Amino acid sequence: MSKILIIDDDRALCRSLELQLRLHNHEAATAGDVAEGLALAATTTPDLLLLDINLPGRNGLRALPDFVELNPEIPVVIMTGEPGNQLVVEAMRNGALDYLRKPFDFQAVLGLLDTLARQKAADRHPLEHQQEERFEETPMAMIGTHPKMVAIHKTIGLLSRSRVTVLIHGESGTGKELAARILHQASAPDKPFVGVNCSAVVPTLLESEFFGHEKGAFTGADRVKIGKLEYAGEGTVFLDEIGDMPPDLQGKLLRVLQEEEFVRVGGLKPLPFKARIVAATHCNLEELTRTGKFRQDLFYRLAVSTIELPPLRERREDIPMIADFLLRKINRKLQRPLTAISAEAMAWLAARDWPGNVRELENVLTRAVALAKSTILTRQSLDSSPGADGGADHGADRPLSLVEAEKEHIRRILTMQRWNITHSARILQISPTTLRKKIADLQLKAVS
């Protein structure tokens, strides 16, 4: 049973809502203006507040911040017969849970009450992935405890002791630039980190971007320009998407790596090159060398040491940790008050394949946070995000049998909980003994 406060000067509407709510075993109180409504909200602490806009004396939308300030835990739903959508935007921006346009179906109110009841249950759930109360900047590291991620950090630590060239390979969104920055931070933190996206610069300008140019080197070169290689000094030059570098520039980069010097465009004097080159690509460079699209000698120069970043689907147990961190980051950026991701939502996140990897995960969470109506990020919140229907291995080409569906669900929960039987059993609401029996019967095995 919930307590609902209705603030509307339409007495007939108030009476109708009051009667229908009581028929569904809810309590209801009514007020005819803002002042009366604020007084009742302060003394009764309703579970839901229905607030009309066009009230005598004071506009309900203008008074909305007062209700939110009075008790931020009381969800407020704005009601109005006004047709404009600008009011919807203003209401949601000022803290309303939802917006009902009159005349509305009473089932919409019951639906809101049902959603609020589920959210309260989620608030009390002991296994929610709760945030730390205070967000702190994470040290520069890739989040995750998967053995592959631990090994990558070990490799970076070893590579930081020298200025050896490094090639980072990984799918889009796996964190190639982050890995390069971690390496730079470990080896030359007080030196410049210079990034160049080889696929984003116009080929005709790429050479000037790299090497700089002398005054008068070409039309428009009215002064000396320092290039990326020179500006980096003893720091790091990060060449993103190296596979897209034009062939003629590949040869010039090879010379820089071999001779450890370069010449500005239009210049004669060789300049020393002291920075570390870290290249990154999502392409198979070995295949590109076989087809003649990438120089084989440059490939060997770049691949002195390589780092392979695993896609997110290969380290699903890290997804809850990454999602919690991203939620804190997004909250701070968008100034939103979300405190947790529900267990159901986290299980869904952990089950997806994430073809766009961490970048896609962050985009989905950002949209969900921006549109969230409560402090808990629910499975329903994620449904409205782009790509919410795809990316997971559901065997969507055919419907699953009951046994297959049960096996898949148990596998996802176990993966999310890193095969912790006690925690997984609690989420599944079965005993650990029953869970062990199902694991044996369904022939489930932990993926190493």
Task: Please give a structural write-up.
- 30% of the residues are buried.
- Residues 125-139 and 390-397 have low confidence and may be disordered.
- The protein has helices at 11-23, 34-44, 60-70, 86-93, 106-124, 147-159, 176-187, 203-211, 228-232, 247-259, 285-290, 296-302, 319-334, 343-351, 357-371, 379-383, 402-416, 421-428, 432-441; strands at residues 3-7, 27-31, 48-52, 76-80, 98-101, 129-130, 166-169, 193-197, 212-213, 225-226, 236-240, 261-262, 271-272, 276-281, 305-308, 340-341, 376-377.
- It is of the alpha/beta class and 448 residues long.
- The two termini are 47 Å apart.
- It is built from 19 helices and 17 strands.
- The protein has three domains: 3-124, Response regulator (Rossmann fold, 3-Layer(aba) Sandwich), CATH 3.40.50; 147-308, P-loop containing nucleotide triphosphate hydrolases (Rossmann fold); 402-441, Arc Repressor Mutant, subunit A, CATH 1.10.10.
- It has a five-stranded parallel β-sheet with strand order 2-1-3-4-5, with helices on both faces.
Quick synopsis:
By secondary structure, the chain is an alpha/beta fold.
Q: Which terms summarize this structure?
A:
single chain; 448 residues; alpha/beta; Rossmann fold; Arc Repressor Mutant, subunit A; five-stranded parallel beta sheet; 19 helices; 17 strands; 46% helix; elongated
Task: Write the SSE topology.
Elements: E1 3-7, H1 11-23, E2 27-31, H2 34-44, E3 48-52, H3 60-70, E4 76-80, H4 86-93, E5 98-101, H5 106-124, E6 129-130, H6 147-159, E7 166-169, H7 176-187, E8 193-197, H8 203-211, E9 212-213, E10 225-226, H9 228-232, E11 236-240, H10 247-259, E12 261-262, E13 271-272, E14 276-281, H11 285-290, H12 296-302, E15 305-308, H13 319-334, E16 340-341, H14 343-351, H15 357-371, E17 376-377, H16 379-383, H17 402-416, H18 421-428, H19 432-441
Parallel strand pairs: 1-2, 1-3, 3-4, 4-5, 7-14, 7-15, 8-11, 11-14, 16-17
Antiparallel strand pairs: 6-16, 9-10, 12-13
Helix pairs in contact: 2-3, 13-15, 14-17, 17-18, 18-19
